[in-house]
């Protein structure tokens, strides 16, 4: 025994309703996938900067050390820097980290 109506007009009405419902469901799926992708992108950690300049403690917070971005010895007082900024800091006399050796990586040797 079928739970569908036996006549053509009601079957066509049911078909239209199901097509519209399916379209709404597909639209909702698209929106949910876009939201999930946006959430995943926000949770994905940013890559570390290529270079870091460690700031000193006290008045002026002068740069005290240059690090490679992935250096294990970099402190919380580091700020990201471009390769040119890191090179300039080394040329200006800021110490190169003895562990990650940014001076070697940047080609700035004494």
Notes on the structure:
With 110 residues, the protein is of the alpha+beta class. The protein has two domains: 1-44; 51-106, no CATH class. Helices cover 45% and strands 15% of the residues. The chain has three helices and four strands; from the N terminus they run H-E-E-E-H-E-H. It has helices at residues 8-43, 83-91, 102-106; strands spanning 51-55, 63-68, 78-81, 95-96. A hairpin with a 7-residue loop joins strand 1 and strand 2. The longest helix is centred in the N-terminal third of the chain and has 36 residues, at 8-43. The model has no long low-confidence stretch (mean pLDDT 91).
SSE map:
Blueprint lengths: L7 H36 L7 E5 L7 E6 L9 E4 L1 H9 L3 E2 L5 H5 L4
Parallel strand pairs: 2-4
Antiparallel strand pairs: 1-2, 1-3
The oligomerization state is: single chain
- Major sheet attributes: 4 strands, mixed
Give me the secondary-structure category. alpha+beta
Order of helices and strands: HEEEHEH
Described by the principal axes of the CA atoms, the overall outline is rod-shaped
Report helical residue fraction.
Answer: 40-55%
Instruction: Count up the helices.
Output: 3
Low-confidence stretches: none
| Amount of beta strand | 15-25%
Question: Mean of the pLDDT scores?
Answer: 91
Number of separate strands: 4
